[in-house]
Amino acid sequence: MRIGVIGYGYWGPNIVRNFHSQENCEVTLVADRDATCEARLKKMYPSFAFTRDESEVVRSPEIDVVAVVTPVWTHYELTKQALLNGKHVFVEKPFTCNVAQAEELIELADKRSLKIMVDHTFLFTGAVKKIRELVDEKELGNLYYYDSLRVNLGLFQHDVNVIWDLAPHDLSIMDYIIGEKPEAVVATGESHLNGVEDVAFITVYFPNKIIAHINVNWLSPVKVRTTLIGGEKKMLVWNDLEADEKIKIYDKGVSMAAHPSNLHQLLVSYRSGDMHAPQVKQVEALRAETTYFLQCIRENKTPFNDGVAGLRVVRILQAADKSIRHRGEAVELWTNSYALPRQ
Ligand SMILES: NC(=O)c1ccc[n+]([C@@H]2O[C@H](COP(=O)([O-])OP(=O)(O)OC[C@H]3O[C@@H](n4cnc5c(N)ncnc54)[C@H](O)[C@@H]3O)[C@@H](O)[C@H]2O)c1
Questions:
Q1: Does residue 293 sit in helix, strand or coil?
Q2: Does 175 contact ligand 1 (Cβ within 6 A)?
Q3: Which strands, in side-by-side order, build the sheet including 143-153?
Q4: Is 329 helix (H, G, I), strand (E, B) or coil?
Q5: Interval between CA 30 and ligand 1 midpoint (Å)
């Protein structure tokens, strides 16, 4: 499999390294409009070809797969050109700038029998795989809530707000774990420095009273990556900054029953049992993800993090932007064309 990579900024080198390390796979050409990227590339991989013209990558007959690792506003056009030239596409999160662009690319790939994979890297981490396993096995019972805190100081982006920068991670994880069709989004946020929101709070409503909340912030003095998932049987805390024991499962819960002699009075009982920290596989997520993508292409399988999964995330991002503009008004997400992640 021959790979062309467009974008060699911060994240591009990770994509190049991971595709390069795969068996029967070579990185044929790397493009970046910034000429200084060539020296960085050649230092690591002296024999790799470099160009400042990205159209050479999308047009090259020597390339089977194009990886788009550029800012979000370029994803649609580069992915479209790659698909029109018969390439499979590995594209960074967030997939596109809006729902219409994502839908068009999905249709184009379908028509040409090409694969799109959206880089929702966290779905390939040992922690997220373990959480999904626990939820599928009903270890937590029916879910009540998903609550995630992803905050740090910077890195300020100029083309997107903090939601489009950080929340795709949480939204893709939430989508993968909850596996339900979200109903509505409420979001609030504020911009303090460069005209785009740097602090934001998103709430997503699901059927069966499952509620998700995501707090993203570029203005936090400390870095926090913590997610709480509560179920009727157990509750889970995932601290991604922990080296060991990233996931802790608490056998805690609350139940209510009517008082035997006074039906108007509720008896509340709290359960507080043991905590255990399950083993989490230490894997490089991007390596697992690139291996999986190549396998999907070879075996003609649809990746679970395909364009449709990317669209589900973009739909919520777009709704969150709309809700922020209306100071937290609820935006309904209902759509016929929704494919559930568990399908
Ligand atoms: N999956 C993850 O965990 C993860 C982490 C970081 C970034 N990302 C995503 O990766 C993408 C890139 O982010 P980054 O942090 O590397 O940005 P960056 O600004 O550091 O790098 C982007 C590079 O793309 C180049 N570029 C821009 N337009 C181009 C074009 N049309 N043709 C060729 N080169 C072009 C720029 O010169 C720059 O070198 C974003 O979509 C971002 O959301 C994903």
A1: helix
A2: no
A3: 266-276, 247-258, 235-239, 219-231, 143-153, 211-217, 199-205, 184-190, 331-332
A4: coil
A5: 13
Say whether pLDDT at 158 is over 90: no
pLDDT digits (tens, 9 = 90+) for 252-265: 999 888 888 887 78
Q: Which residue has the tokens 């900024």?
A: 9
Tell me how long the chain is: 343
Q: What is the mean pLDDT of residues 103-132?
A: 98
pTM given for the model: 0.95
CA 70 to centroid of ligand 1, rounded, Å: 3
> Is the shortest distance between the CB of 81 and ligand 1 below 6 Å?
no
The DSSP letter of residue 159 is S
Q: Helix crossing, 99-111 with 307-325: angle to 10°?
A: 170
Other beta carbons within 10 angstroms of residue 151's beta carbon come to: 19
Give a three-class secondary structure readout of 53-86.
CHHHHHHCCCCCEEEECCCHHHHHHHHHHHHHCC
From 179, 193, 171, select the one nearest 321 (Cα to Cα). Answer: 171
pLDDT tens profile 216-238: 999 999 999 999 999 999 999 99
**Number of neighbours of residue 248 by Cβ within 10 angstroms:** 15
Kindly report the average pLDDT of the chain as a whole number: 95
